[in-house]
Amino acid sequence: xxxxxxxxxxxxxxxxxxxxxxxxxxxxxxxxxxxxxxxxxxxxxxxxxxxxxxxxxxxxxxxxxxxxxxxxxxxxxxxxxxxxxxxxxxxxxxxxxxxxxxxxxx
Length: 106
Ligand code: 5GP
Ligand code: ZN
Known about the structure:
Strand order of the largest sheet: 1-2-3-5-4
Order of helices and strands: HEEEHEE
Bound molecules: guanosine-5'-monophosphate, zinc ion
Shape: globular
């Protein structure tokens, strides 16, 4: 947690281009976009990955997806992809749960 890049972004210790924030979630532009729109939707609670989710996180995961839906609506995105990379083998480089919102080009 101490060295977590996304925790540092959440605490304002590393700058980011913020798209959305509430008490539980923050969303910001990916620093190295893989699509025209590439936003990361991140719970403020430090959870390492989908593998580390627990039943208590059920509502939070729903809110991540609904935040993505809301951001997409505000940005008038016709279509988009929502992606969780899980573990190194799954392409996860930052060990703090995050949902990628990508649209429209990879
Ligand atoms: P992962 O591969 O873990 O699913 O995705 C991590 C994402 O975080 C990558 O797309 C990468 O570009 C992005 N990223 C890594 N470091 C930073 C940072 O300091 N700021 C921002 N805004 N994005 C970052
Ligand atoms: Zn973290």
